[in-house]
Amino acid sequence: MTEKIVAAVEKYRDLILNAERHIWTTPETGYKEFKTSGYMEEKFRELGYDIVKADGITGFYARLDTGREGPELLILAELDSILCASHKNSDPATGAVHSCGHNAQCAAFLGVAAALKERGMLDGLCGAIRLCAVPAEELLEIEYRSKLKDEGKIKYFCGKSEFLHRGYFDGVDLAFMVHTSRSFTAGIGSVGCIVKRILYKGVAAHAGSSPWNGKNALYAATCGLQAVNALRETFKEEDLIRVHPIITNGGSMVNAIPDMVTMESYIRGVSFAAMEDANKKVNRALIGAAYSIGANIEIIDRAGYSPLNNNTDMLYAAKEAYETLFPEEEFTVTQTRSTGSTDMGDLCCIMPVIHPYAPGAEGTSHGSDYAVADPEAACVKNAKWQLSIINTLLGNGAERAKKIVAEYRPLFDSKEAYFAYVDSLTSSGERIIYNDDGTAFIK
């Protein structure tokens, strides 16, 4: 099968490399990937796939059935970009740029899809393969996504949880996605996060003639930032807590006391328990700052990403697949956990998944100097490896995949149980009720 994999991918080398460059030039953020999704849909149709488009949002999936009984394997690629206006290749109108490498992901994914259509590529495989181009992995533009949610267009901010909720992954047994990085490697997983939108509410007044008549929302917000910073030594190192708020609107004009300041933040952590504990501390600090100024505060908390725990058996299947394909090289599995986050964590709550890495990138991830410097490794070699993983999992009667699925013990028994829990993390509303005597009740 190794020779078939190499030959099939090489046949589509130009398709793969052209896709990487094309998608690099059309960066779009989550749930706005109209050009990228349309481009990928067109290429899939040209390859002979019947695609199922997501209803009302970007993204799609297609399915290949081997005709032989076995598990269904989900393979993903992410359509969205980030925002980094200082990058030389960012969209001048939006600041969007693929400083995350998702353009290379999509190109490798397209190569996998093309190769699977070649004669004999499904021979010896059992089960089914679901190929999904998913939107909105990067968790940003919270206000925009909140608007989509309020309009009923989405329920969840991240694409994989939204697709899971919609039933687009029903029937899937296990999943993987390869992210662009600096080497062929994988760790044990990554942290999750709670996502926050924070509105400090003051009272406007003339900043020169009568500032004493106002309540400065910006001062309340800066006090809140300092209070959160004072908490950092209370976070346990093993919980890998990360809190990184930004102010998205700090006032409307310089000669008025700001009456509204908005912020966004994540609370990252290694487990749901750690995230919830840290979030309670942060909320107390933010609320206390508002009370100190006599302002109010609205805090909107929602589940962001779930912590990712890579399935060990799948990791070693991926390692075996790599070293079978490239016997002169070694694939590294480490015991490190990333303090970045991904919505692949949402899927690991109910099925075995892995999120390994392929090389080809240089510069700083999400930074102004990021680039796909080696598209051969990031896209072509990556596609060959993914096909080898498919063969390792679904070959030989899908024995490897069946064993992984049978032995997996998910955190939640069903997607319904999972969503019931993450929905319980949602809270909103003003947090201070002032009494006439100046005292207050804190929610």
Supply the CATH superfamily name of the largest domain.
Zn peptidases
| CATH architecture name of the largest domain | 3-Layer(aba) Sandwich
Q: Please report the first level of CATH classification, the CATH class of the largest domain.
A: Alpha Beta
Distance between the termini: 61 Å
> Largest sheet, order of strands side by side?
1-2-6-3-7-19
- How many strands in all? 24
Give the overall pLDDT as a whole number: 96
How many DSSP helices?
13
The general outline is elongated
Q: What helical percentage do the residues reach?
A: 25-40%
The parts where pLDDT drops under 50 for at least 5 residues are none
Strand content: 15-25%
- Total domain count: 2
The secondary structure category is: alpha/beta
Measured on Cα atoms, how large is the radius of gyration? 24 Å
Task: Tell me the major beta sheet.
Answer: 6 strands, mixed
The CATH topology of the largest domain: Aminopeptidase
